[in-house]
Sequence to fold (333 residues):
Amino acid sequence: MKSEILRTLREASDGFVSGQVLSEKVGVTRQAVWKNITQLKEYGFVIDSVTNKGYSLVSSPDRLYAADIESRIDKGSLCQKVESFDTTDSTNTRAKQLAELGEREGTLIVAEEQTEGKGRRGRHWESKPFTSVYMSMILRPHIDPAHISGMTLLAALAVVKAIKQVCSTQPFIKWPNDIVLEKKKICGILTEMSSELDYINYAVVGIGINVNNSSFPEEIKDKATSIYLETGKKQDRAQLAAITAQYFGEYYREFIEAKSLKPFISEYNALLINRDKEVKILYGMQENASENKIETGIARGINDSGALVVDTAHGIECVVSGEVSVRGLYGYV
Ligand code: BTN
Fold:
């Protein structure tokens, strides 16, 4: 009900909505509207009430709050439901638990803080409260489990489009799952799934965006940054989470219909930071292990299975996500 109230207040053409109109739109009594508005105010929403005019939403708190995010996502989008936590171990873990219990596709889990934020390859994901976006969406795609890495690529497209829209800055993609701004990482994506050999029970796409962080721990500060650090402007995290979920839903539905990544190749390749640049392919899971095979080549872009096509001295290599790590020759990108 709160998300409907917020949505109606946001859509008000002259800024005000009467208690009567709100109660009709939301389908509850005026008393219930008043009670929910009081609770929203207690939560930090600034809502003016003016006699004979009604209610007006003045501002929203800088919090990742389920009803607020829901109210900013178009009706009919893949994401219809958001669950928010002040703190949780990992939004991916939460999403997987809910998926196991039968939660429907599109449900989004967000948290202010993660105590066990997960990165790829078992790494830790720095997850301080009130600065970033931590979000995970439940999916039930009827696709071959071998094609699940496509979800990461679609999420990358969605994050780039959302950041460009909300923050008026142009990020790029470092294949397969990093979003970069000024050659530093501002976002990572972790896709996990539960599957049989030929069937996906569910997948979870987890997205962590460094939004308003003003510093990073010593060990990652050379390669991690935030939108705030690069643009000097603080951003509306709830809006960024909502728009990202909205765009991801649109890309996902198109992908499911096309049954291929083909429609997205040129958009993705245009955003690929390593395109036509020399990259180092690290085969094996340990990036620094001396026994790993390393090859260099020129990254050309992704193919329609989402593999990175690299021109090497031994010919074309199609590098599959999850098996390798790709680095620029002289640093992170
Ligand atoms: C990476 O770059 O290694 C992937 C990082 C993914 C982090 C996000 S934050 C939201 C979701 N929950 C997690 O525990 N991880 C992902």
